[in-house]
Design goal:
- This protein has 418 residues and is an alpha/beta fold.
- The protein folds into two domains: 172 residues, Carbamate kinase; 172 residues, VC0802-like (2-Layer Sandwich), CATH 3.30.2130.
- 34% of the residues lie in helices and 26% in strands.
- It has an eight-stranded mixed sheet, with helices on both faces. It has a four-stranded antiparallel sheet with strand order 13-18-20-19. Strands 15-16-14-17 form a four-stranded antiparallel sheet.
- α8 packs antiparallel against α9 and α12 packs across α13.
- It is globular, with a radius of gyration of 24 Å.
- The termini are far apart.
- The structure holds aspartic acid (ASP) and magnesium ion.
Length: 418
């Protein structure tokens, strides 16, 4: 007998029929002898609809009221799911964030969980009831309803699993696992059987949207095994687990891409101490987050440097006038913008122990005639900025070049030059 958390995403509870399916799945787990805690998202499309209503009333709606509205989607889904379990002859009780007491800070629309009181959940289970918890929502210390950011019910699920010390957190979704890359771009993409928290974190932050990033951070911190799987089949999905668990024997676990960023190029800044500090200090003050940064000194021109950085396209739209102002205040010669870019990345723990992975990536892109505009690396990731029109080509070439379609384990990983 185990204690399991099952989380169902928007499509999995997208209709009454699907909610009935969810009810059957929870009851089946309970019949096997497990104690079941269910976390639900709002029915698919519902959160967008609710946010849309708010925007019709106010262009920039009040954040507290926004959360009061947005959280209702999960309230409805939780109650419907509990009813569906009851209709199947089972016992269930819905619990909202404030009823469980999922305590958060007061950062409306992007709140962080501070503590979860597990007693209501345990009490419910002790009664033989399935606890159906509304995802995405919590309560701050003043009793205000908060939400955890888009995709936040993943985080609710993993945090609840950690709080009740569940043996696993199953994330039921409309895909059957985490893939080596986007199957829509690369038909040979393969479902990964096991991946580490670290790799998943990188893939999630690079735009692989299976799990909310925060949920992976919490899973890693509390060592909650997460099983991403389809709510429409019984097939095993992808386990996201600690590094010490047996992982796939690969150097590169996945290829990700992100078209959501734009590039800003400051041409002809003064090359002296403090200029870059001033530039990014001003940018940070305006709450603009940047991703990649490159600086290079123009050899030919006297004491001038160029700085390139990337930021979210949505931030660029908002911040262009401010960027122009910063450029003027620093005596920049010109500012150029490029929105037709994409960041293509490879991720894998194996990079720690294998040299030459980055070089191989650059060679693969070069062989396709793709120019690299910027590079950034971390211990387990290499990202290249390329023209957006080459995204798909780059992803496919890297997927093939690193042999990601091949089921690992059957053979030793490809030899890498040291
Ligand atoms: N319903 C919320 C959203 O659409 C939370 C979630 O689905 O995880 O973002
Ligand atoms: Mg989601």
């Amino acid at each position: 007998m185990a204690l399991v958390v099952q989380k169902f995403g928007g499509t999995s509870v997208g209709s009454i029929d699907r909610i009935r399916n969810v009810a059957k799945r929870c009851l089946a787990a309970q019949k096997r002898g497990d104690d079941v805690v269910v976390i639900v998202s709002a029915m698919s499309g519902e959160t967008n609809r609710l946010l849309g209503l708010a925007h019709q009333v106010a262009p920039v709606p009040n954040a507290r009221e926004m959360d009061a509205i947005a959280s209702t989607g999960e309230q409805v889904a939780a109650a419907l799911t509990a009813m569906a379990i009851q209709a199947e002859g089972g016992r269930a009780r819905s619990l909202l964030g404030h009823q469980v007491r999922i305590m958060t800070d007061n950062a409306f629309t992007k709140a962080r969980i501070k503590a979860i009181d597990a007693s209501k959940i345990f009490e419910t289970l002790k009664n033989g009831e399935i606890a159906v918890v509304a995802g995405f929502q919590g309560v701050d210390e003043n009793g205000n309803i908060t939400t955890l950011g888009r995709g936040g019910s993943d985080t609710s699920a993993v945090a609840v699993a950690a709080a009740i010390n569940a043996s696993a957190c199953e994330i039921y979704t409309d895909v059957d696992g985490v893939y080596t890359t986007d199957p829509n771009v690369c038909p040979t993409a393969r479902k990964i059987s096991r991946i580490s928290y670290e790799e998943m974190l990188e893939l999630a932050s690079l735009g692989a949207k299976v799990l909310q990033i925060r949920s992976v951070e919490i899973a890693m911190k509390y060592q909650v095994p997460v099983h991403v799987r389809s709510s429409f089949s019984d097939a095993e999905g992808t386990w996201v687990v600690g590094e010490e668990s047996a992982l796939e024997d690969v150097v590169v676990a996945g290829v990700a891409y992100d078209k959501s960023e734009a590039r800003v190029h400051f041409v002809g800044l003064e090359d002296k101490p403090g200029v870059v500090a001033e530039l990014f200090g001003q940018i940070a003050q305006r709450n603009i987050s940047v991703d990649m940064i490159i600086q290079n000194v123009t050899a030919s021109s006297n004491q001038r440097a160029d700085v390139t950085f990337t930021l979210a396209k949505t931030d660029l739209a908002r911040a262009k006038p401010e960027i122009e102002e910063i450029a003027r205040s620093l005596g920049t010669q010109t500012v150029r913008y490029d929105e037709d870019i994409a960041k293509v990345s490879i991720v894998g723990l194996g990079m720690r122990s294998h040299a030459g992975i980055a070089a191989r990536m650059f060679r693969i892109l070069a062989d396709e005639g793709i120019n690299i505009q910027a590079i950034s690396t971390s211990e387990i990731k290499v990202s290249c900025l390329v023209a957006a029109k080459y995204t798909e080509l780059a992803v496919r070439a890297l997927h093939e070049g690193f042999d990601l379609a091949k089921v690992p384990g059957s053979n030793a990983p490809p030899a890498i030059a040291k």
